[in-house]
Amino acid sequence: MVGRRTELAALESALSAAADGRAGAVLLAGDAGVGKSRLLAELTARAADAGVRVLTGRCLDVERAGLPYLPFVEALGRLPESGASRLDDAMEQLRLFEAVHTELAELAANSVVLLALEDLHWADAATRDLLLFLVSRLNRQRLLVVATYRVDDLHRRHPLRPLLTELGRLSTVDRVELAPFDRADAMTFVSALSDDALADETLRNIATRSQGNAFFCEELIAAYGTAVPTGLSDLLLSRVERLGRDAQRVVRAASGAGGEVEHSVLQAVAELDDLDEALREAVQHNVLVTAERGYAFRHALLREAVYEDLLPGERFQLHAKYARVVTSPASLAYHALQSHDLPTAFKASVQAADMAVELRAPAEALHHVEQALRYFGAVSEPGVSEYSLQRLASRMASAAGDSDRAVAYARSAIGLADDPETGAEARHQLVLTLIPLETASAEIAAAVSEAWELVQDRPQSVTRARIIALRAREWAWYGSAGLDIDELERLAEQARDEAMQVGADDVAVDALITLAVYAEWRDRAEEAQELYRAAATRAAEIGAYAVELRARNNLAVNLFMQGRVQDVVVVANELVERAVEVGLAWSELAVEARVARMAVRFNMGDRAAAEKLEDHTTAPRWASMRLEAAALYELAVAGRFEEVDEAAARIMTYSDDANIVGRVRFARAEAATWRGDLREAVDESLRLIASIAEAPRASVTKARRAGAMAVGALADMAEQAWRRGDDDAARDAIAEGERVHELALTEGEYSLDHQWREDMRNPETACMEARMDAELNRLRDDVDVELWRVAVAKAVTFRYWHASARWRLAEALINDGRREEAIVELRAAHAEAVHMGALPLRDAVEALAKRARIEVAGVEVDTEDLFTPRERATLELVAAGLTNRQVGERLYISEKTASVHLSRVMAKLGASSRTEAVSLAYERGLLD
Fold this sequence. Notes:
It contains 47 helices and eight strands. Mean pLDDT is 87; it is low at 79-91 and 750-757.
């Protein structure tokens, strides 16, 4: 039941009231195919399971011929000793109505009754009268009447309208409006229907075309690849065929508009003397609806069906008429193209692209400029260069979040540049599109070098200032290893000065941001923050929005490095809001800001905010995948392992982006650890470390985090091996853990030639390094409480890892005999795990509490030992690896008696072997 919880709850509430003797009726309204029957079926199934007497009847579309009382005959005719005979015998309407009322009242006296009537819009007059009679007499019967009807079938003169008005006046009647799915629910629904057989982009297209109608979703998926499925088209066109000739003509004319159409435009295209009357009929029959500027189809698929039903010649003539009267460049481009007027389509596309840029709509601008490029060669006098169109396409693709197309257009523009200035500008654009990818260091370096060669000997200009500012950001593609910070800072100052001299304010602000970075590197964090804020303000004033987002992003990173996580959320929110306002909603920095605030909220333990996933139903696929991947770790922490597996498989099928794949691997490793698949947890972590080492800009933080997860899993493997007496496996785990620890310390490290190393200032790096060291100590079976205290202290801004470290600290304290200190840590870890909804961690804490006989909230501790003293002694010696003979010798009993004690222990634990008995005892907290 996707997206129907509220409506189902309302129906169940009404049924519950009926069970308490408060009879009522619910009118379930909605468009055809929206899911009324499915919702009613769910209600009747649940009611039947609860012992409710369910009676169902359906009205049929039999026009005026009619079958009187059909739904009631169907409902009552299914009863034992059917009330149908009373219907047949009753000669007067009042007696008939009383007979049905009495029959239902008698049934309701014995059990709760649910009378479900479907498709009331087809009800005959007799059925409508009987329903009004029954509902108006609802009082204290244990009876609920639920009737469905189609809203879109109710034209102004529909006979059901008066009945709905009468019923609406009754206090016992409620109305539940079943709306179409919203975007998120539509995506969930079509994804479930497709069973991962279709790509996300296809599913998103289907969800959009369906406009949230469940039946349309099903039909579009079943007939994927066709314009409008035949069966669905026939159903939709049947609505149009009921209209008069003029109304049908105006509907066909409106179908060519492609969307909303103004009255004056429709007047010119439809060429009808009485357009208003034709429109009134189409609106009254719910084919067209009034819109802000004119008229539109009630459903986009209805427009598609009507349009597809036109002959090719009709479509051509229709679009030619539209092209003569529309004024919008976007509309003109569309209609000119459909009527094969390529020169007009080209010029209108260029105008539409420029207008979309002004309106800050990059996706729309990209669509129009790509259309112009497609027909550039077919126009003799384009009036604009192909170079400028390619550069515009690259900029708009980047702003819309389509990095691959942005790079492709930037590369094409380089080949079209015909002078040093344009050549340098084209390379500048290419570098800006490549930097976020973090996979093209060599190409970036070459492009920057080539651009500088083109302008270094030229007079000061905007382009020259841009290239100098770009050179000052060399760390962005090389990392911080071995850089001459003094020289880079000098370049940033030069770029700022030259930009101010030539009036390039956006370049000057961009250089200011770079100078703020260097202030931060020199441990002047507060100065850097002031510069970032000043840069963001100035960039907003001059309309340099991409530069503004860079300033806000750098400020968020700066605050995170200072441990000011709440301020990070504020800045990230501001960044996203500004990105949406200025048309950069799905740019790289806007998406990363969304990811950052998800992570920070999770780290703060803000469960409600963390569970509220970012809405990415309108996002480009790469952004949608990145946001979904960012949410995976939270799912793993919550113990929702099946969801992790399903989402991870889907994401890995459609994306090889290193950022996305890394997040998936972290989530998989966490899930594998908690469900006991420790080898898989280690392998996922090792894959992460390997990918980090191969990346152009290796990440110390990710390497440490992967190392901590791997060493922790290997510590669990070693512990399990010791328990089952497999010394070789335990030693292998220890040896592998030590290798992984060393690998994680060395892989991803920047060169120490320079004093500054980016990730080493990251609090997450310190947190994970402390955790990895403590896990290595646990792996070696040492008890070093202080290492875990350091891990707890370093994790203070990461609530989940903080709780996890406190759990391990409590374990170390217990093993060190410091019970009172352990109680404090264990209870704190439990409270944090419960607050965050971290169910696997909560269970692990509770298992330790039981094992240590420590009370935590909501957990009962057994005060009585499950075993007798002799059985416990036997179990402890077996856990230590002794044979039955050795146990007997140690306890001064015979080998046979030791075997008997062990058998009793195994029986109490439900174990089939001595090894399993020891393992189960540890898991249940019965062994220290």
